[in-house]
TrEMBL record:
Protein name listed in UniProt: Lipid-binding SYLF domain-containing protein
Keyword field: Signal
Pfam families to which the protein is assigned, alphabetical: Ysc84
InterPro entries assigned to the protein according to its UniProt record, in alphabetical order: Ysc84_actin-binding
Leader peptide range in chain numbering: 1-20
Domain Ysc84 actin-binding: 98-181
Taxonomy, superkingdom: Bacteria
Length: 185
């Protein structure tokens, strides 16, 4: 019985330490940290891809994920945290998670922004307990120094995803199968 108590104590201590390391406790500055990263990411995106300013002006809201880390070796996954902004004001915080399987190896990091182009798309996203990206997302992935412009196909899409700032050893980035969940930072 004495061993069980020690083991239970060790597990409780480990769980408490892990939870404290998440920096998601009440009174933490998690929201301020996310907002600062979102501001920096948006400034970089607007400077590097001026066409995104037009998307922002036409959108009803934006979900900004400043840093998504993705890694895989056979099985893979990705995680990041960001903010939903409506009229340039943060209204909610979200996490993004992705799991994948198949022939894959490596790791990468990237930023992405979802532009909600209709009120209905934004409302569906906000009402969902866990929203998964799929066929209703149009991708505008700039590469190199090229300009990003909203074309005819993307201008009619309810949600436009811009993925940029990729670094790492994996090729490409996609949001298919990615799940977004509201969090309290």
């Amino acid at each position: 019985m004495n061993n069980f108590s020690r083991r239970g104590f060790a597990l409780a201590l480990g769980a408490t330490s892990l939870t404290a390391a998440c920096a998601n406790g009440v009174g933490s500055n998690g929201g301020a940290r996310i907002d600062a990263r979102v501001d920096s990411t948006l400034n970089q995106m607007y400077a590097q891809y001026p066409g995104t300013s037009t998307l922002r002006a036409k959108s009803t809201g934006m979900l900004v994920m400043p840093l998504v880390t993705e890694a895989g070796l056979g099985l893979g996954g990705a995680y990041g945290r960001g903010a939903l902004r409506i009229n340039d004001v943060t209204v909610d915080y979200y996490s993004v998670a992705k799991a994948s399987g198949g022939l894959q190896i490596g790791a990468q990091q990237y930023a992405h922004v979802l532009f909600f182009m209709t009120d209905e798309a934004l409302l569906n996203f906000r009402r969902s307990p866990g929203w998964a990206a799929g066929a209703n997302v149009e991708y505008a992935i700039p590469s190199g120094g090229e300009t990003l412009a909203a074309e005819t196909t993307t201008s009619t899409a309810p949600i436009i995803a811009v993925i940029f700032g990729q670094s790492g050893l994996r090729l490409g980035a996609t949001l298919d199968g990615t799940k977004y969940t509201r969090i309290i930072p």
